[in-house]
Amino acid sequence: MGAEKDIIIAVELASTAIRAIAGKREPDGSMQVLAFAQEESPNTIRKGIIDNIDKTTQALTRVVAKLSDKLGVRVNSVYVGLGGQSLRSVHNRVLLQFDGLELLSHKTIDKMHDTNSGVVYPNAEIKEVVPQEFTIGSRSIVDPVGMQAEMLEANFINIIARPTLEENIRKCVNAAGLEVQEVFISPLCEANALLTPNEKRSGCALVDMGADTTTVSVYLNNILRHLCVIPLGGSNVTSDITSLKVEAEEAEELKKKYGTAFRSDSEDKTGQKINLSFDRTEDEEKLQEIVEARYEEIIANVWHHISAFKDKMLSGIVLTGGAARIPDLPQAFARQTAGELNIRIAKGLPENVTISFGVQVGEPDRLYTLYSLLLAGKENCVGEIAKEPDKDLFSGFEQKEAESAEPEIQEKPETQEEKPKGPSAISRLWKKFEKMLSDEPDEDENA
């Protein structure tokens, strides 16, 4: 491929695998996927938090090497997403009281931002600040600059997380010989990629159901209103199925084959049996009860965080993530929400992402976090690989050079004297021929 400009590399540190993707931004702003690679990494990341730095570094090194080979360029830096159990939003209010009417300026707003950024949270630090509306009296205002007020109230959503969450990401990336271009807040990037402007404006909840965690983001009037990470996901369902005395791998397969998030009360109970390992059988209904019960718990936790906005979420709930692929999930959410909200599952590629011909990415709708990080990237992340000299080319060049060189003059040995040479046979014949023409007697005949 050679060195190309503006190739962006994004990495997702997921609970089940580490994935990397490369893309090139087109003139129209869309992103063309050039390569994809992943490396299975069980027991390295738990609940979105790096649990084993060494194993994560090794897996990251391998996956980036795969990507580099596919691209034909050296990967120098990456964009990485930040998620995990400790990530959450906290509302903060800043008040400014003035002496009489004050003309509000950008300097006033910057002062309130600085005050908000100075807030200290125990065992957590601010990763992102999302400004909300300002309040003057009873009025809610987006931009108060140029107005007059005796008191101004500013509302902020601070996204916070444990300091070690980002620190460990940077440790692993640097240990893999790479630089961190930027650490993005994964849920914010994903919402930008999956939610339409209309959904964000009219009110919508994005629910990303992963293996170890479920992330909830609520938007209203194009502004993030709430963000939380629930420490429950698809792996909890798999763990529950192991109560049937099966290994985790078999439990995962049973979940995919027979599991459902919602069983209708009117559904006929057929008493169908399913086959387990070691020539055992189990009631399919019992397995489905286990799966349904855990999904009910996850959905109840999601509803706890979004119910306060239910009257304002005109666009309802958008579901994504590997654990959202379970059958009948929209019906399960509808039961919890009493059918008050529209529910859809995100499918297909994001609108502004295309896949290059021949690039294999598996199931595209399982990589939404990775696509969203790729779309958020801006700077080039690769450099050209220095090629080794072609040995055959150089050997041919050396041989040709040797052939074209002037031959060396070898000195004759000085140990023997050189004997004088007599006239050649041709010379003697020519001399005899000349004498015959001149009728002179031949010296050899007179001899």
**How large is the count of helical segments?**
13
Distance between the termini: 90 Å
Structural class based on helices, strands and sheet pairing: alpha/beta
- What is the helical fraction, as a range of percent? 25-40%
- Please tell me what the overall shape is: globular
Total domain units = 2
Mean pLDDT: 87
Fold-level CATH name of the largest domain:
Nucleotidyltransferase, domain 5
Question: What would your notes on this structure say?
Answer:
The chain is an alpha/beta fold. It folds into 2 domains: 7-86 and 163-238 and 287-383, ATPase, nucleotide binding domain (Nucleotidyltransferase, domain 5, 2-Layer Sandwich), CATH 3.30.420.40; 88-161, Dna Ligase, domain 1 (2-Layer Sandwich), CATH 3.30.1490.110. The chain is built from 13 helices and 21 strands. Helix 4 (186-194) crosses helix 10, helix 6 (234-241) crosses helix 7 and helix 6 (234-241) runs antiparallel to helix 8 (284-306). The longest helix is centred in the middle third of the chain and has 23 residues, at 284-306. The model is unreliable at 386-402, 404-421 and 440-447 (pLDDT under 50).
